[in-house]
Fold this sequence. Notes:
Blueprint: H1 2-8, H2 10-19, H3 24-29, H4 31-64, H5 69-118, H6 121-126, H7 129-171, H8 173-179, H9 183-220, H10 222-227, H11 231-283, H12 289-331, E1 352-359, E2 369-376, E3 379-385, H13 391-398, E4 409-411, E5 414-415, H14 421-425, E6 428-431, H15 442-446, H16 455-464, H17 468-472, H18 491-505, E7 509-513, H19 521-531, E8 539-543, E9 555-560, E10 563-568, H20 570-576, H21 579-588
Helix pairs in contact: 1-2, 1-9, 2-12, 4-5, 4-7, 4-12, 5-7, 7-8, 7-9, 7-12, 8-11, 9-11, 9-12, 11-12, 16-18
Amino acid sequence: MPILLTRIDRDTLRRAWSAASVVRPLFQQYQWRIAAGFLALAGVNILQLIVPRIVRQAVNSLESGLASPAALLRLGGLVMVLALVIGGLRFAWRYLILGFSRLLETELRNRLFSHLLTLDRAYFQKKSAGEIMALSGNDLAAVQLTCGMGLIALADAVFMSLATLGFMAYIHPGLTLLAVLPMPLLVMLTGFLSARIHRRFKKVQEQFSRLTEFSRSTLAAIRLIKVYTQEHACLRQFDDLGRDYVRHNLKLAMVQGTLFPVSGLVANLSLLLVIYFGGRLTIATAISIGDFVAFISYLFMLTWPTMALGWVANLLQRGATSLDRIKQVLEARPVLTEPRSATPLPTLRHGFVLHDLSFAYEPRLEPALSHLSLEIGPGVLGVVGRTGAGKSTLCHLLARLYPVPDQTIFLEGIDINALGLSRFRDLIAYLPQEALVFSDTIGANIAMGRPEATPAEIEAAARAAAIHDEILATSAGYQSQIGERGVTLSGGQRQRIALARTLLLDRPVMIIDDGLSAVDTQTEHAIIANLRPYLTGKICLIVSHRLTSLVDADRIVVLDQGRVAEVGTHAELLANHGLYATIYQHQGTGKECRG
């Protein structure tokens, strides 16, 4: 039987062994727990094999007329004791091995989540949230089942088949050969269906990822969907995805459903052969009636490994597929990595120097920045330009969200690629275009970067962001709960809470990438004025489409097609009559250029 299993699942086991590097350390960590569990499982199997021997002894004593009530009672009592011990050992292996599979699931989920936190923006632009959620749901469940009941069933099938065949051969070798004669049929069928299970289960998981991602994105955009009255369209699309998911599952079920009944057919064919030929041997007194009863009992014990063969192959296929998907995520590496020998961070005095910087998000795309050179020192630097000019890209690179070529961005004369990534980011307080808030209290959202901040510090940051009075107007003030993705807040409120979070960090470099676009002009002016006390000796880069908000900036840089078109103060740029003056004139006549 183990030879047959190895042959059947050769490809499966090869894939599983390759992906097993992910869970192998966990097996080593819990090796004594696993060993104790399998010892308990072996004990159950051994004691189960003894029971037919006791039954054989009782039947033979009855056949010979030597049985007595006391002897039969003694044999019955022995069976009862064995049953109690078997029950205790069964509890032990379930607790130890199935408990290990749950520990493995927890450890693997934590490792997966921890690794996802190390990956950078570029990775999440290629992988949807739905696909990642499917990994932590269906795929982890498949791995847990394989490493729990799957391994138990495999070990049980191998041990029981070997031991049972040994006991059967001891009674009659020829009858044992007849009993296993139908087994090659199951071997061939399982080998034929094995690869199909792998392919179809992979399609099922991929479709589940698409279904999960559609659900997530729909709920995230529920207000927009309602405004556009797209409920029925979303329902139709969700129904189509669900039907595809069911269709793929049915195709998988067709393969899986073939294995189990065929296993049962093989077991019943074996039983038919044993009853016919074994009965003839019993009639011919080649074996005793007790031997015949014991042989049939052992055959029933062999039925489970035979029927479990298809189920184990299915579990191994599913587990190997899911583990391989998880392995691919765990093997993904961030594009941005820490340098081997990081240069200590310098004291911030002069700021950044960008020299001949070119950057494209993908090699086949046009550069977002092209041969850009710029100095960014202490004070407020406004960044303006038309849509696609490279404003947000400049912010992304200064915050080190994407890799940059060597010798293109310097901080205090040091190439930023030589500086430690996490230490460098500790210098940056970054407010992106999309104001992200979490389903937590307002106070916790503001204190996200500094959980130890005092209520007074949180309030001061909220006042500077012009959101304090609106927070007090809520039902519980700073303890008010924010709905999922800030659904209970306006866009301007979300932006100002995110700005308060940025201010509370109190870092040397502040980057505001059009982070005030949802507030009115008057409030934006007030906020920028409030920033001044926070910016003494610091670098502040503000991207805005409203040029009137940047008139008091120390310098303004105008980007055009990824290049620096102009640099100067508001008055100097107006006097140049260049691109800045053109945009300013358009905005002054109500033709605001946005992007």
